[in-house]
UniProtKB/TrEMBL annotation, chains A, B:
Entry-linked CDD domains: 8prop_hemeD1_NirF
Matches recorded under Gene3D superfamilies: C-terminal (heme d1) domain of cytochrome cd1-nitrite reductase
Superkingdom of origin organism: Bacteria
Name under which the protein is recorded: Heme d1 biosynthesis protein NirF
UniProt cross-references to InterPro entries, sorted A to Z: Cyt_cd1_C_sf, Haem_d1_sf, Host-pathogen_enzymatic-act
Origin species: Thioalkalivibrio nitratireducens (strain DSM 14787 / UNIQEM 213 / ALEN2)
């Protein structure tokens, strides 16, 4: 049988390109339920990790200023959205391990959210103050919401979260207002404004069921509560005692409200400026207990099975993690991962917890029950750790 | 330049196989967070679906008897495990859209569970009674737990669930026992037996935090409760009034306990044989209310934002779905999807609900708030609908 004649060009294509693509395909074809992103704060990069065998899959660079950066996920858990401090919004394809879209959407921003249906991304901006909403697929601008208060002043936006019924909720730091932007009827949102909620809301949280939006106040004690099922009832003040109080203690870092934990009938929250964790009855927001801890708490996180609450601390006590048992409200463990423990993230079903130890340039993985250290990953100045299971949760 | 000589065989390989694989690769490369499986009960097949644009991606056949079939997912959400009634256990690669492993592990089985770390699969068996545990990757047998009671009788196993700390919990129908198999120390489980829990436990549920295991009793009224954080306290009896009572009403179908809903401070559960949904205080398991509904409830499911509870019904009222508002405990809506509404599943963040309408050979997708029908998929005798977000939940 006669050999076929084939031009060198075509032969080259078949022999080189094809195997290359095959390799790429076999790399790329994988589930995305066990993926995550770790922010490398100092280098403007991220690492894509997987929690099944606890390895790093790739590093993506060129993401700008990632201090206070946060990460959201597309509803199919293929794409990560990185919200940078410099107004950068970057869409990363975690399967192809590359940046697919990147825009600088403002001068200075502080976090974002993704809509209930996964179609819209919202970003909270400091300079100029406002919220911009983008198409999650293309990052094309969908809506621009300048946060101009009733006196015509533009206000910084903080505490932006997604809420059920295709809503975004956020607070105006300078104006002391809480706004609800409702996208359920299309891309021109219906905006509801709640005024005089308190002085300088600086951060906020939404409960896991997406019902209660709670803003912390920097300018006074207490917090502002909005029931998103009954928004017409307006904003009420809760926990008058929460804040720095009259003593005006030195506050090394205002705690993150995303660091709140709801477990069982309690909410656990960092006391501002005090070495204690507050335990609050989540039905009437009354204080149940104050648990003395190692330092000023920053993140207070409940394990997915709600048996324990993990706490990290502000400088100079930030080498330590402590564990509080939810049933007894007692400290049951204390470990020292190393210098500058910035953030923690549980695996979705709670068997492990990943911990950023910034100044050791390491992320540690611990068994959430035995506290045994299972793995150590090299990460440059790690800060936030975000797993893709967040794509399936309200307010994450 | 001289053309290169190439044997017809090699040329055939390059020209045919390579493009084929390329096509496969581009198909296969996708996130798995928006995937799901719909069981086609009558034909022993499943459809792989995606919830972002609400389409069917593939049909997989040859899965045996799928009546009462249930589906679990690997922790990376790439593989689905289908537990058949005939003892078949099938691992499906949802990206390659093919069966990767299939075994017949017993003569007759009723559901399974996947361990907290995703490494182990457990299957509950009727004939012969017992639990078999398999490696989730290979389906190789890891442990065999024959359920022989204290009188030496082998017992059917029901109500098998996963629990935190690498445990499986299940009930012995004939023996009236609840067993806990602890795999946290390795593949030879530590078994704890709780005897005399009540006559004929027929199904069970575990609360979303993995703390309370509750078994329904077929042989008497009431339910058996085990606190998995304090197993030494033993099993206690709750809700003495729950069951068929003395009237011995005709029960067309025992309700599924996975059909229970925990929302806010309440548990919503189907009343056995009655046209009502029971509302129970989840702190002391006392009855708070009885809500009259359209028929005998089967599944009672809370929306992810816990604002509503959806209910379907037993024959002959199984053409209808009703919606109960959690805050007011009032019926707020009633729709008629069609003949034989067998199962419902919410999208992970609750914007949509998918509904199996078996005798119309359709699955409907509704907006969970407006109740508008958004899509209709052709599915042969659809029964269970399972989305991959279950991989990240305890007891799902």
């Amino acid at each position: 049988m006669r050999p076929t004649r084939l031009s060198p060009g075509l032969l080259w294509i078949l022999l080189t390109i094809c195997p290359a693509v095959l390799a790429g395909a076999s790399d790329g074809l994988r589930g995305t339920g066990d993926l995550g992103v770790i922010v490398e704060r100092a280098t403007g990069s991220i690492q894509i990790v997987e929690t099944t065998s606890r390895t790093s899959l790739a590093r993506i660079t060129g993401l700008g200023d990632l201090s206070h950066a946060s990460v959201k996920y597309s509803r199919d858990q293929r794409h990560a959205y990185i919200f940078g401090r410099d107004g950068g919004l970057t869409q990363v394809d975690m399967l192809k391990r590359e940046i697919t879209h990147r825009i600088i959407q403002s001068g200075n921003s502080i976090g974002g959210a993704i809509s209930q249906d996964g179609r819209l991304l919202a970003v909270a901006n400091y300079e100029p103050g406002g919220v911009k909403v983008f198409d999650a697929k293309t990052l094309a601008l969908v809506a621009d919401i300048p946060t101009v208060d009733h006196e015509g002043q533009r206000s910084k936006v903080v505490g932006l979260v997604d809420a059920p019924r295709q809503r975004f909720v956020f607070s105006l730091f300078d104006a002391g207002e809480i706004w609800v932007a409702d996208f359920s009827q299309g891309d021109s949102p219906r905006i509801t404004r709640h005024r005089d909620v308190g002085r300088q809301p600086y951060d906020a949280l939404i409960t896991p069921d997406g019902r209660y939006y709670i803003a912390g106040l920097f300018g006074e004690d207490g917090m502002a509560l909005l029931d998103l099922r009954q928004p017409d009832a307006g904003v009420q003040r809760i926990m008058e005692g929460y804040g720095r109080g009259d003593e005006l203690l030195p506050v090394f870092k205002m705690p993150h409200l995303e660091g709140w934990a709801i477990a069982g009938d309690y909410a656990f929250m960092p006391a501002v400026g005090h070495h204690s964790v507050l335990v609050v009855d989540r039905r009437d927001w009354s204080e149940v207990a104050r648990i003395p801890v190692h330092g000023q708490p920053i993140f207070v996180m409940a394990s997915p099975d709600q048996h324990a609450v993990w706490v990290n601390f502000a400088y100079p006590d930030n080498d330590t993690l402590q564990v509080i048992e939810v049933d007894t409200l007692e400290l049951t463990a204390s470990i020292e991962p190393g210098p500058a423990v910035l953030h923690m993230e549980f695996t979705p079903r709670g068997e492990h917890i990943w911990v950023s130890v910034r100044d050791a340039n390491e992320v540690h993985v611990y068994d959430a029950y035995s506290l045994e250290r299972l793995a150590r990953l090299e990460v440059q100045s790690p800060s936030g750790i975000f797993f893709t299971a967040r794509a399936h949760r309200i307010g994450f």
